[in-house]
Amino acid sequence: MIVVVTGTGTDVGKTWFTSATIAALRADGHAVAACKPVQSFAPGDEGTTDADVLARASDADPHSVCPAHRWLPMAVAPPMAAATLGLPLFTIAHLAEEVKARWAASDDETFVFVEGAGGVRSPIADDGDTVALAHALAADRVVIVADAGLGTINAVRLTVAALTGWTPVVALNRYESSNPLHRDNRAWLSERDGFHVVTTPSELGNELVAGLTRRGARPGRT
Q1: Which of 103, 95, 106, 101 is nearest to 72 (CA)?
Q2: What is the pLDDT of residues 36-90, one digit of tens each?
Q3: pLDDT, tens digit (0-9, with 9 covering 90-100), for 88-141
Q4: Phi and psi (nearest 5°) for 97?
Q5: In this structure, what are the phi and psi dihedrals at residue 206, rounded to the nearest 5 degrees?
């Protein structure tokens, strides 16, 4: 099962929520893999990049999570980083082919998390964004990570509207049940807008397992 993880913007906690969900699924015995097709980061952040975090959660090598030639030491959108650094430009097709080549042997019972960059419409390649990547990968599920606070409803609605072809799961990060605004945002998104909303990595893991079971597959076990 290919699970594309995107967000309503930068710094909403995509990597934390993804890595914590991976850890929860692995603790329950499920087969899980992590993929960051391309990443840009501030020079000196090696060891703490998204690929490093996802690698630790999935017990993998960081360069198997994100190929070495897709590590771009400049904290801007990946295609902008490549252009500024004088590196070859790359397309959605390039990224999708690399993801498929790495995980071609995975069966339908393995959860392959593919994390995008920035928000859902942020450029991830010279010719497209995470929406285009999700289509190129024929993603089984799409997860939208959003902050739980002010502005969440607008950001989630705009992000869901961009993802035609899927019924995304909305993961509210940093959710506090004691916070009235967080509770109201969750209720509005789920009860009024009809979105499927989760607030913890364990909830997201359970939803993905249930979705796999509904498709008629047996949840993968390591």
Answers
A1: 95
A2: 999 999 999 989 999 999 999 999 999 999 999 999 999 999 999 999 999 999 9
A3: 999 999 999 999 998 876 777 899 999 999 999 999 999 999 999 999 999 999
A4: -65, -40
A5: -65, -40
Please give the Cα distance from 135 to 127 (Å, whole number).
Answer: 13
HEC sequence for the chain: CEEEEEECCCCCCHHHHHHHHHHHHHHCCCCEEEECCCEECCCCCCCCCHHHHHHHHHCCCHHHHCCHHHEECCCCCHHHHHHHCCCCCCCHHHHHHHHHHHHCCCCCCCEEEEECCCCCCCEEECCEEHHHHHHHHCCCEEEEEEECCCCHHHHHHHHHHHCCCCCCEEEEECCCCCCHHHHHHHHHHHHHCCCEEECCHHHHHHHHHHHHHHCCCCCCCC
- Tokens describing residue 174: 């940093």
Handedness of CA 72, 76, 78, 84 (dihedral sign): negative
Q: Report residue 170 as tokens.
A: 């909305």
14 is catalytic: no
Q: Which candidate in 36, 141, 182, 186 is catalytic?
A: 36
Give the model's pLDDT for residue 212. Answer: 78
> Which residue has tokens 């690929």?
51
Q: Which two tokens stand for residue 15?
A: 């990597």
Say if CB 181 and CB 149 are below 8 A apart.
yes
Angle at 11 (CA atoms; ends 21, 77), nearest 5 degrees: 110
Longest dimension (CA), the chain: 49
